């Protein structure tokens, strides 16, 4: 028996059909692929801001005819403010596909420009090291094979297992993150010093005065995509995307004054694969109704009497994507939806339980994508922000445009209005503009503007007239004293995070061995950030242009950082001011046949004399820390090196790879150790390998070799924490050597959890791959 592996490798120079200036240096897309084999279909991840994406992503199908395999690949550009655009498609035909041997092809795209590379291979159900699970509903999953068990070494004086839950537990204390990549209008002020927003699958109520967070966590199993606030500022509604297990999408309504409590109500939105997500929501002016838009093909509109837990009506919204909603301030039955080249006015007839709709008439105004609506005054006037940066004024009784004003800047992504403060618009080019508005006719006068410097995705007035601004780079600002009566603005940076705008994944994480209150992260956004775990803020940040960063390590004295990139380059950085001490370019050598050189792991030795890197090209490079020269290369792995650990005395290294192979090395003589008895007295300074004696039972039934991403052991050697592809952080007693050993499980991440470390005996830090968030967990003794 065998199955088909289809590996989407990369594409080059993707240019959508109809582009006029193909040489534009700023021409970028956000491509993802739909892989079709027979009647089966799979979607790839999105690669942001590039015309030459690299996926290296595998998909698995039941094989039909290996003598002739036809694969259809359709590339789309992910659009936030419009319907996803097709970039091109390519048909691949492979003859006589072989077992465990890749066949690769480049094919020119049609209906667009560019080239796409794809590879296929047959796999038997025991390759590499996996067998098909026969457990209940997990037929389509794979289960880890313990072929590596022969390479584990039981240490001398090995500790005994504890067949009970660990005495310690984890409590989520802080989340560093704010989702803006594919959502807007998701940041609200609850009071002068409290705001609400979301990251991963967690709703966050954040006191900006004392920097303390409270969490709504547990009702959503995947990314929260939208958030809205009740008129009384007490209740919050959050909507999510359908999970990988087809759970959801769901809407949860919860109390912002007690977010830790269970939700007041949860609505399950139809069939997950059809509905896809909840894209935007809004409460009626009196707070009785909740209107929700889903991501199905019809962008369906639902209205709920949420306290009665009743769905009152559902109707098709529009054939084009609906991007935002606003509710009439005085008539609870009326609201408006806007989107790709349309505006639609809605009224709910409570007697017949049906919607009455009217199409918005643009008249002489340009027909274009409308991004955000806001009613003013008693609701007779509606203002909408457009893709071209214009403000359209609508008469809501005749449903037509009665005036336009160019804001002077690009797309208007968000608006906020208060009679006493004025109208503010947030723009894609980073400007916030302020207008005085006549509520009776919608006529406007521009008063002032200020440049935030980052694309604005959401904004809201605080009760005292300050503006909370959320940006595409996941940075949150407060603009003080920016009202029509006092437009002298003062911009204050509140929180800075890794960017969720163009980031692909967040992997790099390490603790400062010389300061248990400090840790460092790096990610595909090119940022290295040092964090203060006590003040919950970043201490310093370095942006390395043109690099995707995947691994980072502190030196034992905490004075240096070693950063590894997807390009294979290495940066040695002074941790006090983040100045670059040395840039070490990737070194191409003749014996390396792989075209993938990305660094996956980097570790400095406990004595500080060396550091090592593990790479996609299956090698381990060893460098000294005096002049940063490479002093040797360890070869022997047959797949990507994933994790590394040093011994206490810096004489030994252990490593594992993506094909579940454990190897051991003499770091002095730079040779592989094959006599495993030599390693029994060795004590490992850290334990990060997902394979080995103290972690041999961390795997659950039905899990594959790549399900677990990271392992960390605390310094007291009492606890093990693991992270996985199922968005879990798990806590075990150390060692984990008993079958079905009890553990504590924690949720909140919405993506594969890529890494984890202990900060002394007080904290665990975990990183989310695609959710781009950092979770700080307090260890409760």
TrEMBL record:
* Leader sequence residues: none
- Output one GO MF annotation: microtubule binding
Q: Which domain of life is it from?
A: Eukaryota
Recite the UniProt keywords alphabetically.
Repeat, WD repeat
Q: Where is the C2 domain?
A: 1-107
In the record for this protein, the WD repeats are positioned at 634-666, 746-781
What is the protein name given in its UniProt record?
Answer: WD40 repeat-like protein
